[in-house]
Amino acid sequence: MRLLPAVEAYAETIAAWPASGHEVTMWCGRREYPLPPRVVAEWLREQDVRAYALLDGRDLLGYGELWFDAEEDEVELARVIVAPGFRGRGVGRALVRNLTGLALDAGQANIFMRVHPDNQAALRCYRHAGFHPVDDDLAAAWNAAQPVAYVWLRHAAPADHPSPG
User: Percentage of the chain surpassing pLDDT 90?
Assistant: First the structure.
């Protein structure tokens, strides 16, 4: 498996992965179904966002983004999704670990994710990839401006990726 920068040619395929409006909401918080491919293509051009695709040969297995916040000196893993035919096989965990590795290699020790509280499969995946809930007060503060009370997770940097500075 290889993690490469995502390109606009993948947008139609990625947008088609959610099988329902509920899946779209769990994935990216949007309410439109089916998700128009132009939305995914627009994400690829967002400032401070690096979008990646996980491939195995010619098969597109997953998609995820790193949202860099230089002001806060942190990065958020976001819009992580695995192709339907590859779910439940550890692909999500591999995708998240690869994205986390890129963030750590970029010097980011503060790596977060927010997950819809009903997305139990994603929560299990992220916990297995080294993410743990932030404390309740911090989660409450971050959720104050959110449309839903997300579960906020933070990555615990492994010893081979020490914190910068």
Answer: 92
First-to-last alpha carbon distance for the chain, in angstroms, is 32
DSSP class of 35: P
Residue 33's DSSP bridge partners are none
> Which residue has tokens 């743990």?
132
Collapsed DSSP state (helix, strand, coil) of residue 21: helix
Q: Are 114 and 82 in contact (CB under 8 A)?
A: no
Query: Quick one: tokens of 55?
Result: 């491939």
| Token pair in block for residue 143 | 């959720």
H or E element in which residue 60 lies: strand 59-69
Task: Encode burial over 101-114: b for 16+ CB neighbours within 10 A, e otherwise.
Answer: ebbbeeebbbbbbb
> CA nearest 132: which of 157, 164, 163, 107?
157
CA distance 155 to 19: 29
Identity of the amino acid at 74: E
The pLDDT of residue 158: 59
pTM of the entire structure? Answer: 0.93
46, exposed or middle or buried, with CB in 10 Å at 0-12, 13-18, 19+? exposed
> pLDDT confidence of 109, banded at 50, 70, 90?
confident
Alpha-carbon gap, residue 16 to 9, rounded angstroms = 13
Q: Looking at the predicted structure, is the pLDDT value of residue 161 above 80?
A: no
